[in-house]
Predict the structure.
Amino acid sequence: MKFTQLAEPQIEKPLMVAALQDMGNVGNLVINHINKSKKSVPFRRAESTQISYVLDQGGYIEIPKEGWQYSYAKNIIVFGGGVGQPKTTEELHELCQDVIDTAKRYSVKFIYSLGGFHTTRPIRNDHKTYVTTTSQDLTRQLEKMGTSMTPTKSVITGFNGLILGYAKTNDIQGIGLYGELNDPSIPQYRTAKSVLQTLEKLTYQSFGDYHELDVMADDIERKLKSGWNKDY
């Protein structure tokens, strides 16, 4: 991995939200929405240095540039979004460590990650978001607030799960938010909205208006009804 510091934000003890693209594109949608609503400013960039594929542009190839950005606004650091996740285990761990190092540098006390939660329960615009934490004490606190905790044991793979493990081993409190979805192969705008609304309640932050997410969700539903090919 290659890391580049673009600026030095003047922030103290912010919360951090960190997530990469996952099923239903939930991580990417949420991070992009937060950055837009907060008008966050980029200050650091992480780039993959491993080549795992090339792009054939029709007679010639290009090497893709994959990277993820740190941005900040008042009381918050936002990391991730973008396209994909690290292609190797080594890069995944290196990226997680950089997120933790950055969190420590600015005295982050809470790291929030997020993503999709695949369920067979038929969802009719009532997407639930489930929460898991890095400690039983924190879980008990959230349960008292009426928060829906993850209902079953499971393995959370990729960056959006592993970063919570890194937070726990570095004595940083972590909370994971995972929104219900039925079809991981299409962008899940209503799931992203559910995750954002739950994140607002937990952080006492406002992430703006959700009209654009509603519009995009309606558009996806219209396309599906008309026989749209779900490849995105």
Notes: The two ends are 27 Å apart (CA to CA).
